[in-house]
Amino acid sequence: MTATTARVDCDVKDLGLAVLGRQRIEWASREMPVLAQIRQRFAAEKPLQGIRLVACCHVTTETANLALALQAGGADALLIASNPLSTQDDVAACLVAEHGIPVFAIKGEDTATYLRHVHRALDHRPQVIIDDGSDVVATLIQERQEQVAELIGTTEETTTGVVRLRAMLAAGVLAFPAVNVNDADTKHFFDNRYGTGQSTLDGIIRATNTLIAGKTLVVAGYGWCGKGTALRARGLGARVIVTEIDPVRALEAAMDGFQVAPMHEAAQVGDLFITVTGNKHIIRREHFELMKSGAMVANSGHFDIEIDLKVLEEMSHEVAHLRPFVQEYRLKSGKNVIVLGEGRLVNLAAAEGHPASVMDMSFANQALACEYLVKNKGQLAPGIYPVPAKLDGEIARLKLVAMGIEIDTLTATQVEYMNSWTAGT
């Protein structure tokens, strides 16, 4: 339903779900101590006071805690979904009804609704954009050039979005600073590897109730997301095959003990396929033709283009819905291919996404990156910037404190040695 209250405009499924959403947001907050500390400081210092901020993210319990931290910092924030199937409708309702944050997100929204929400976000005339895939930024550049000058900067959460930002920079259209949150150590080492690894398998198991042990599982891509997925799949007893285009990553996968093969070979033996590359048509016609009947395919990359569903539909005479988030494409050849989560992020379409304790670090990076952009307004040239190492290290320190873990510090002698070039053997 589209609703307008006395306080806030929104487009959510049902504001009556707010109470359930509150309970789930509070549950997630227990596992997000770093973001809680940032929220407390933001509430006292108001570093984002009056800043119009748009966040295009997966509308989940973890994102809700980020939104509340930004609001505590004084931001005039608006939230839209970055994926049609990732929204948790009760969370969206709670943010609107109990916190007055405009949210435009409905689980299962169609493409037209999603694009309408993107434009509604840009109507907010953002000064800072938190993007997840760079759709909002790309739309701003292509269709709202008159607003570009108002933008202080953007932050990007995903590998896919960073690739798009680099393409914008190369094309000479990136006219503002962008912070690459995705490549912060406290993001990709943990969120991409442990978060994606666990939540992807979680989504597949929830959707299918299949046993992973004993299956041949093909992981397309051995970046941090692929590493985590392969590692968790092996831990569940799968025989894992990795496909890659990068020789260094392929070598790393082989050294990690995984079989490495091109997709046309893996397609013939795989029982379950997971794409995590950030690229297009990783699994396509020639691979579907080689697959065993009953093979399952899932995607954990940001966009739903990694699996060529259009050609799969052309190859089929019927598509059957077997259970939630499980579609069986019945091919004209007589074989069947099962697609999970409509080819969208299976960990969010069929499950709840990353555990809150992992997103604690990722969203701490987002909050501090927004503060960094505002503090450095007008001082950063157009381009792509890393999260400052000092902020990255502080997030790791806070996380260790929250986990009750202590580490060593350098002695004075060690500091002197590390800063000297004359000391030797």
Automatic annotation (TrEMBL):
Keywords: Cytoplasm, Hydrolase, NAD, One-carbon metabolism. Substrate binds at T60, D132, E157, K187, D191. It is found in: Cytoplasm. Its EC number is 3.13.2.1. Binds 1 NAD(+) per subunit. One of its GO terms (biological process) is S-adenosylmethionine cycle. This is Adenosylhomocysteinase. The lineage of its organism: Bacteria, Bacillati, Cyanobacteriota, Cyanophyceae, Gloeomargaritales. The gene is ahcY.
